[in-house]
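Response to reviewer comment R2.3. The reviewers asked that we include at least one raw input/output pair. We reproduce the pair for histidine kinase here without editing.
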Amino acid sequence: MLNILILTFSVSMTTDYLYNLPEMKKYQILIVDDIPDNIKVLQSILSDDSYEISYALNGKDAIMLCVAKSFDLILLDIMMPEMDGYEVCEYFKSKEKTKDIPVIFLTARVDEESIIKGFEAGAQDYVTKPFNPQELVARVNTHLDLKSKNQKLKMMNLELEERVAARTMELVESNQSLEHANHQLSTLEDAKNDFLSLMSTELREPLNGIVGFAEMLEFSIKNKTNLKYVRYIIQACEKLTGVSDMALLLSALRFDRYEMKILGISVYEVVKDSIEKLKPLIAERKIKVKVEIPKNYIIRGDEKLFGISMEKVIENAVTNAPSRSEVLVGASLEGQSVKVFVQDLGVQFTPSEVNYTFHFFELNKEDRRQDFKRFTAGLVVVKLVMDLHKAIVDVENLSEGGVRVSFQLPVY
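Raw output as returned:
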């Protein structure tokens, strides 16, 4: 017989507007802990009537319960007999039904190795014992909120894809004119772009809340280890915001929604600004970035787009370069053009990765799903930006090892 308790609690909703859940529904939460006293503590903290809480006293019972029931969040103790929390989490992340359920580890161990091991096992977050009630509720509600929005995003994407497929079939079957078909598809693309913009805004709101409270904690926390983890949260949120912004820019560039402003651009100043923005990553990777660009090189182009391109190429180089190695950013005059290049000692591009970067929107769906080591969405943006500037882009695997990415733009 399973050692499982299923209880439902009804208490007034929290008044803190930031952590109110967006829908009045029962969120299914599974608590896995082999110590009943810990369960009682969590019961008293998570006494909100928007939760329906189930309990399992060991990993095997938790797995069996997840087979029979669906959950929105799992609070998982690390130190348990037979199967520890890491093993249970890895199992959940390997199964289709449970791989998207956010897991928060419950742990008394705050050493960096244990925390990193938890994230590598697939956990989204952790809470330390003894539990801080406000922190626990905040983390639970944040991950429930994000999961809810992600589910909505998937459902809306699926619905939109079905609508596109259905509409396309109608157009084929009715043999309408090419002009009419293009107009209809363009309307659907606009809907996808508007939807992307809406979802970006929806995701930004909870992220801003997380960053705001994390920054408040940053100024009040004195423990160096905890301060480092708070900064990890801030960096992760900033990265998610950057991904959202990049998706919107990709859409704008892809469908000619971006209005270019052609000016004279100082290559040196743009490179310097890009390196400044990437300082945290450069410091984390312990990379030396060497700049060999004359200050009088002025090119013709859109300063914002050129800046984004430089930042993404340098970021790709710093990310893939071996720790404590050097990244070289340089430029040379080639007739009436300036050739700008970024060179690193990292893993080289395969021919497939080069093709993937330069012909992304010409590939079929299966080809786009390949897993590459050096490819990033940022490089697709760089290619689109250079196409708008009618610029030459080149990726070169160096004979001595490493990669050089270069692009050539006209002198102003």
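The chain has three domains: 4-130, 136-254, 262-410. Residues 262-410 form a domain with the Heat Shock Protein 90 fold (CATH 3.30.565.10). Further pairs are available on request from the corresponding author.
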